[in-house]
């Protein structure tokens, strides 16, 4: 074993003689530019922060494992799901969505739920939220939606006018808005919330047979949420409350776990199901497609270095393995590009080579060069394909399974425009106290909205979901439920 060298060095490995005093022209003279150790320290310090994520900037992460408890190989050939008892190492990052890197954990916001499985066939990322649906269903609206959640470019303050204006003009958001404004909008901890893949994905088995699938991570700790007043108090007193809770739980051996379950839909059902199964603003009824257990995720190790592991971790729903493919979900299709591209910008071209992102089975391709390429860059091996020099070759058995598509190339929306049924069903599932808190949260969030027409338009959406829902919000705002004609006037 090599004896540990305790000498402080520069970034190029040379021993540092003095790390307390810079080189100057005499004790009161100016600092000399020849103090390269000083220059290197300052230059590196200026660059210690990579750009924060545009969304999901604030987060916490942990390592763990996923263990299969039910054989579902009849549905997918993904090797990490191939046999009961099989364990796969994984890393998860929880996050808020809208806030900056230093924002509070206990705000009302969806939580990101991004899991990286280090499988023998490469990494598999499942990048979802703690909600089964989302605000929009087409990626072309995503930049506009996120702009409304960020700061106003003039005041640099959060802008409820923008938030509710966008939601009121995007009725597909109603289902997610109802979840967000409910008790589940502020989880008690990261440990006490569910996670969802949200989108529809496709599983394919060894025989080439495919099904549609949705992922549900059910917390084994039980669902717990925060009272709004306690959440506000914690935001001021301990803005890192969720981050601290997760770290301490794992450090104390209280390892959190989730049971992964899936819904399976035959491909042909997608043509006739009463809701478009690829619309991420909708859920599949569990009466129609019951939950099937897959396995258990356990978090048992904290990161050794937050920046190296949590901040530099990169996730994308396009990080797939054989046996798991995508669906025509319009929001998912946009994310397949946007996430990888965000990481190339934020972390760098070679972000997949970083230890936290590098697959355990290695990388074997013809991609070369780029900023911060820190491995052997392919060495002297062949660097193009096809070639006659025994370079890595494609494996046709790992092609994505086909599915039929048809139609005219045009800017089109989903065929189904029922944005109210599922939101209304959710409202009616709540007990009286839960509905009262939901309405109270909405009223408090909408009161600062300056334009009455925005409030009236949104009230009408609540009313269409459930008359009581809309009426109570209107009463809380001192308004009456408008007619369709009044909304359109």
Structure in words:
Its EC number is 1.11.1.6. It catalyses: 2 H2O2 = O2 + 2 H2O. It comes from Siminovitchia thermophila. The chain is 27% helix and 15% strand. By secondary structure, the protein is α+β, with helices and mostly antiparallel strands. Among the domains are: 59-133 and 186-359, Catalase HpII,  Chain A, domain 1; 421-488, no CATH class. Strands 1, 2, 3, 4, 5, 6, 7, 8, 9 and 10 form a ten-stranded antiparallel sheet that branches.
Give a concise summary.
The protein is of the alpha+beta class. It contains 13 helices and ten strands. Among the domains are: 59-133 and 186-359, Catalase core domain (Catalase HpII,  Chain A, domain 1); 421-488, no CATH class.
Topology of this structure?
Layout: H1 36-46, E1 59-68, E2 87-96, E3 111-119, E4 122-129, H2 142-149, H3 160-168, H4 174-181, E5 195-196, E6 201-204, E7 210-219, H5 228-237, H6 241-251, E8 257-266, E9 292-301, H7 306-311, E10 324-325, H8 330-346, H9 421-429, H10 432-446, H11 452-465, H12 467-476, H13 484-488
Antiparallel strand pairs: 1-2, 1-9, 2-3, 3-4, 5-7, 6-7, 6-10, 7-8, 8-9
Enzyme class: oxidoreductase
GO molecular function: catalase activity
EC number: 1.11.1.6
Which stretches are low in confidence, meaning pLDDT under 50 for 5 or more residues running?
Answer: none
User: In the CATH scheme, what's the topology name of one domain?
Assistant: Catalase HpII,  Chain A, domain 1
CA-CA gap between termini = 80 Å
DSSP summary, beta strand count = 10
Family: Belongs to the catalase family.
GO molecular function: catalase activity
EC number: 1.11.1.6
Protein name: Catalase
